[in-house]
Amino acid sequence: MIPEELRYTDEHEWVATKADDLVRVGITEYAQQQLGDVVFVQLPEVGDRVEAGAPIGEVESTKSVSDLYAPLSGEVVAVNEATAEQPDLLNDDPYGEGWLFEIRVDDPEALEALLDADAYQALTRA
User: Fold this and answer.
1) Is the predicted pLDDT of residue 66 greater than 90, yes or no?
2) Burial 57-67 (b: 16+ CB within 10 A, else e)
3) Is the pLDDT of residue 18 over 80?
4) Is 45 exposed, middle or buried (0-12, 13-18, 19+ CB in 10 A)?
5) What does the alpha-carbon distance between residue 74 and residue 88 come to, in Å, rounded to a whole number?
6) Rounded average pLDDT over 11-18
7) How many angstroms separate the CA atoms of 93 and 100, rounded?
8) Number of C-beta neighbours around residue 42 at 10 A
9) Which residues contact 20 (CB under 8 A, 6 or more apart)?
10) Which of 3, 9, 71, 77 has the highest CB neighbour count under 10 A?
11) For residue 121, what are the β-bridge partners?
12) Secondary structure of residue 44 in the 3-state scheme
């Protein structure tokens, strides 16, 4: 399942536009399937400045540990505490209740540089 309305990174994160300069970020269904059962999530802090491509957290599963990366530069304005308390939300609902954090982006036009659904689907088939 690859929702058409989202943008994607090659690190298997999705990005949803919430407002002109606000995005919500999570991991894709493909990512959570590769990880297996998620047991721990480390999120950035509200107020953190993040740079596109920089590691800003971790997702740990029964199989491995994967870094979370900032898809865009800006300021973290919200984190989903529910995923920190219930990491299995990432397995159950990665595009809904399992979202991770929100960023007020410095350059909203940078969103266009991320992958669209078709490009992300091609990436996951490679």
Assistant:
1) yes
2) bebebeeeebe
3) yes
4) exposed
5) 27
6) 97
7) 11
8) 14
9) 108
10) 71
11) none
12) coil
